[in-house]
Design goal:
The protein is built from 12 helices and 5 strands. By secondary structure, the chain is an alpha/beta fold.
Length: 365
């Protein structure tokens, strides 16, 4: 290709085109066709009649449902509040009842209602739906936490370019400290959005901020460390890790039981799922399962610390060489102030230009 300018533009178009492909595959693969896969439900009742009824429901639904029986309504409520089941059906000729917990998943509650409405119709009575864990009135679908996750993620991964490319001249320990500081600001913004601005969190706002900080700090440290090795490809990598795979597996819109096995598996250990499920536990389920979600976020933070540590070790000899070269380029005694600049100056200009381009590209995304 004869034109360097055209080649430069085409090279930079590779990243957004790959993002287009990746976002399409991830979002459409995760969200377009939600179907129950082993959705856990309970039938309330004891004795042979209840077991036969549960088996009939299971045979009708096939792999869509995992059906169990529980002896009492209180047991079913406990399973719903621990998020072990998505719905619990209480058979009755006069008033069949379906219990759900929409704070755990509005889409999941809708899915089990679609399953059990025709079951109740066969019993000859309208279905009564009882919500045992409803989200706050300011977030009626419970999906506000997913959009909070998006805000925190964008603030975190977009800051990586400024810290990684713009701060390349700084020592890694300084960039790491800046990453921790930026994560405190990003999580503070998230806490303001969740609390005073949109009222998603009516209590335990400090806990929401703490989990937001763990989440943001993990992303920033991973990104700053990866930038040492990936340079301008860091943007695409961060989008894959913390947008394409992260948002789709978080459970913010669809629980893993409504997705295919790939995203359902990621939900078990990805950091976005740890944040969303952790905040749900804190706000709606009395902290049930919170410790596991916090540990998930802490593991991602430790991974970030490890990556930045490896990057610091990788950069150390290169910085030593640059320092030696700078010392060797010091003008000798008697050299006039008008002496030519060191030969390395064009490389520095090129690095600065690439850093600026990377920051613009990332923020634009």
């Amino acid at each position: 290709m004869r034109s360097p300018a055209l080649r430069h533009v085409l090279t930079h178009l590779v990243t957004p085109l790959l993002m287009c492909i990746g976002m399409g595959l991830a979002y459409m693969g995760a969200f377009v066709t939600p179907e129950p896969h082993h959705l856990p439900v309970a039938i309330v009742g004891s004795g042979p009649q209840a077991k036969v009824f549960a088996q009939t429901v299971k045979d009708t639904a096939g792999d869509r449902l995992d059906v169990r029986t529980v002896p009492t309504r209180a047991d079913a409520v406990g399973l719903l509040k621990s998020r072990e089941v998505t719905g619990a059906y209480v058979p009755g000729a006069k008033a069949p009842e379906l219990m759900v917990a929409t704070a755990a998943s509005d889409m999941g509650a809708t899915a089990v209602e679609k399953v059990f409405t025709p079951v109740a119709a066969k019993e000859g009575a309208p279905l009564k739906v009882t919500d045992v864990a409803a989200p706050v009135a300011d977030d009626p679908t419970g999906q506000g936490l997913f959009f909070l996750l998006i805000a925190l993620s964008i603030g975190s991964y977009a800051s990586v370019a400024a810290l990684g490319a713009g701060g390349a001249a700084l020592a890694m320990r300084v960039r790491a400290l800046l990453a921790l500081g930026v994560s405190a600001v990003v999580s503070g913004i998230g806490a303001l959005l969740a609390g005073p601005v949109f009222h998603l969190a009516h209590h335990d706002l400090a806990g929401v901020w703490g989990m937001a900080w763990l989440y943001s700090a993990g992303i920033l440290l991973i990104g700053v460390g990866l930038h040492t090795f990936l340079k301008r490809w860091t943007t695409l990598t961060m989008m894959v890790l913390f947008v394409m795979l992260n948002f789709t597996s978080s459970g913010g819109l669809f629980r893993p039981e409504l997705q295919n096995g790939f995203f359902g598996t990621l939900h078990a250990f990805w950091n976005g799922a740890g944040f969303v499920e952790g905040v749900r536990s804190l706000l709606y389920f009395d902290g049930d399962g919170l410790a596991s979600d916090v540990w998930t976020l802490m593991v991602w933070l430790l991974v970030g610390l490890a990556v930045t540590g490896l990057a610091a070790l990788y950069e150390r000899p290169r910085r030593a060489r640059h320092a030696a070269a700078a010392a060797g380029s010091t003008p000798a005694p008697g050299t006039t102030a008008g002496s030519p600049e060191p030969v390395a100056e064009p490389d520095a200009d090129r690095a600065a230009r690439e850093a600026e381009e990377e920051v613009e590209e990332t923020v634009g995304v």
